[in-house]
């Protein structure tokens, strides 16, 4: 198993007492698997990602990566967040190279691999379509371009696991779709184990092998659904597929605490004209 979570839970203690953020949970992630985490705001999704990243200790349980206990942040994990996290004073290319510079300093030497690193940075900049903007600064880029740079930076250390926390949440619908296509393309080429937090059920179904649905805070796993569309079938078109819509309805019902019954409201939200209710509500 690539990632193994056992009894991982978290409560924060602050001035106003304890906040129970995450109920103890078990989760196994296979090598190359892409898992989306969906759930109501405040249910502990970011907390879970921070724990897996080693940025925050759990109050209960353990996280193992390739059989080794995660005790702190490391280069095995690539991180990408919703907030713009590029360094404004570095160019696009310097931002993407930055994690390598850090790793290089830590290992004090290996000057010989500077050329290999430069080639790796170039390859990634080309992959995300930013080679022509390599010398631009973050403020000169659109939101989508900034997130493409952040994606390249998350990948540059060739991480074992990619952790993405609503990475496209702040983008407009069209840019978001472009980023989804880019990520799909990337997944098809390099099967990289990914935990992906999103509010967007369409996005979760389009990208994932499995969608894990969380309850309200303190988050616990309500369901873990396999998504079986072939990789080749994954494109924006898929969002109109009947089987896709069926799974979407199922997840939306779970999120609203009304499992497995498509209601009139779901149908309206899904934009279906047939408003006949099944099972009623
Ligand atoms: N550093 C922190 N200190 C105290 N409480 C926190 C901290 N981080 C998150 N929380 C609380 O933990 C709960 C879960 O937060 P979070 O993991 O950010 O949820 P989500 O990402 O699912 O929206 C929330 O109630 C939030 O206020
Ligand atoms: Mg969050």
Tell me briefly what this model is.
The chain has two domains: 1-76 and 159-240, P-loop containing nucleotide triphosphate hydrolases (Rossmann fold), CATH 3.40.50.300; 85-157, no CATH class. 34% of the residues lie in helices and 23% in strands.
**DSSP, total strands:** 10
| CATH topology category name of the largest domain | Rossmann fold
CATH top level assignment of the largest domain: Alpha Beta
User: pLDDT under 50 segments (min length 5)?
Assistant: 264-268, 271-281
**Number of H- or I-type helical stretches:** 8
Oligomer: single chain
Our Rg estimate from Cα atoms comes to 20 Å
CATH homologous superfamily of the largest domain - what is it?
P-loop containing nucleotide triphosphate hydrolases
Q: Could you say which overall geometry the principal axes of the C-alpha atoms support?
A: globular
Number of individual domains? 2
Give the strand content: 15-25%
Ligands, ions, cofactors: adenosine-5'-diphosphate, magnesium ion
Distance between the termini: 41 Å
Kindly name the structural category.
alpha/beta
CATH architect. name of the largest domain:
3-Layer(aba) Sandwich
């Amino acid at each position: 198993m690539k990632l193994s979570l056992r009894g991982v839970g978290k409560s924060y203690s602050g001035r106003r007492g304890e906040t129970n953020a995450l109920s103890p949970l078990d989760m196994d992630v296979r090598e190359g698997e892409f898992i989306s985490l969906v759930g109501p705001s405040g249910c502990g999704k970011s907390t879970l990602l921070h724990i897996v990243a080693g940025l925050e200790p759990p109050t209960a349980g353990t996280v193992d990566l390739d059989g080794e206990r995660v005790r702190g942040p490391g280069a095995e994990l690539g991180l990408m967040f919703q907030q713009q996290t590029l360094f404004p004073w570095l160019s696009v290319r310097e931002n993407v190279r930055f994690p390598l510079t850090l790793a290089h300093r830590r290992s004090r030497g290996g000057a010989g691999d500077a050329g290999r690193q430069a080639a790796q940075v170039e390859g990634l900049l080309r992959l995300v379509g930013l080679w022509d903007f390599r010398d631009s600064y973050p403020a000169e880029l659109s939101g989508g371009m900034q997130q493409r740079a952040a994606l390249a930076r998350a990948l540059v250390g060739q991480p074992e696991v990619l952790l993405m926390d609503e990475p496209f949440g702040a983008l407009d619908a069209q840019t978001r779709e472009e980023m989804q296509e880019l990520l799909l393309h990337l997944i098809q080429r390099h099967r990289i184990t990914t935990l992906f937090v999103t509010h967007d059920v369409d996005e979760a179904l389009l990208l994932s092998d499995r969608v894990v649905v969380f309850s309200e805070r303190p988050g616990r796993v309500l369901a873990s659904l396999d998504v079986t569309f072939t990789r080749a079938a994954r494109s924006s078109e898929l969002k109109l597929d009947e089987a896709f819509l069926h799974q979407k309805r199922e997840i939306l019902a779970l999120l609203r605490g009304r499992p497995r019954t498509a209601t009139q409201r779901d149908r309206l939200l899904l934009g279906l004209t047939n408003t006949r209710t099944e099972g009623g509500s």
